[in-house]
Amino acid sequence: MSTITLFVLSTETRSERRFSPHLTVRELKTKLEPVTGIPAPSQKITLHASEDSAQVLTSLDDDDRPLGYYSVRDFQVLKIQDTNPSSTSSAGQYTDVSRVEKFEISREEYEQRRDTVLAYKQRNHMGRFAPEKKSAPKVEEHVDIPIGARCQVDPGDGSMKKLGAVRFVGETKFGGGGVWVGVEYDEPLGKNDGSVQGERYFACKPSYGAFVRPGKVQVGDFPPEDIMEDEEEI
User: Fold this and answer.
1) Contacts for 115 with CB less than 8 Å, ≥ 6 apart
2) Is 107 found in the same domain as 43?
3) Start and end of every CAP-Gly domain (predicted)?
């Protein structure tokens, strides 16, 4: 075996490396110093079966032993710990935000500046600075259909037209708003008795009532049909 492929993990680094099994632990630590930022004398190296495994297979604690002495196999994991974090280790210098000098400004100063995101939004009327949209005034729908008038309802789907009388005209609590026309049919061709969802709009016998949009209602001289007129005399 000329080289061994291993994963190297430290607090802030992860990499895949190849090492000679003849490399001593001391030489290995020297190679890992620029990789992990942990000085070689401060390194504690443990061998693990996988990255998620907390079980230590062995500790590489003899600097004079070669890597191969520890029966290291391909794709195992070397975890490097810093035994002296307060030393000259460079670990943490890129993730420790406490080391970063911060620019601070008061809210009042920020609001007075003209080169900020806040100022940009103010100039371009964006976000909370956008003009308030006024809702369009509600236009009342004018329907010239008198209550009590005879009417004919055309469903518009090719089915037969129905005759009846107008019993209600106005807005309802169902159907998404707008004006509905309540019709009492001459025959039991409806869907209700003048009430929908517990709200009564007019009264009629069950299955004689229905609600339709004004566009489907034609008011005129539509006398009730005599259902006996086509029958033979008895």
Assistant:
1) none
2) no
3) 178-213
